[in-house]
Predict the structure.
Amino acid sequence: METEADRPTRRSPSPRPPGEPRWVAMFYDPASASWRPGAESPDRTPVLYAIGEMTQVKRARGDEVAVALWGPNDGEWHRFDPSTATTTATSTAASAAAAAPDAAPPPPGDGEARVGHARLTERMEDRRHQVLMTGLGKAGLYDLSPDDVTAVRTLVDRVDEATLRRIAHWLALAGGPVE
């Protein structure tokens, strides 16, 4: 006899995110039986990075992982296969490295530290950008003007992550239900 625990979980397909097309990772939350945005950005790379990080965390907790990747395609929303997108991004980086086999490796020591530091700096900027864009999204601000994009970039460049998280929290509260 089949029990409730033996039945596969059935979830609705990921809904299209609201607003203008951009890159959005939607994660399924079994507790609420709903899809929620986990990361969003005008660029694909930070969202793919976030998918990888969030998937690792969820699996480490023993949670089920279901993710949908939405992005722009000819100015319209399109749902992409996140495993293909991640594999494509990884294979593109690998093929770029393989395309230049005669390139000299970076000098040991200080050069490696600079490359690693540059990657860390870029990753932290991407995280700060995601935090701010998520806060703006929760406040219902999706269609950003060029001036808004400049303001976001300025904040990301000049403000630490803890402060940006606080700003994102305020934005989320501003976009939440009125009690």
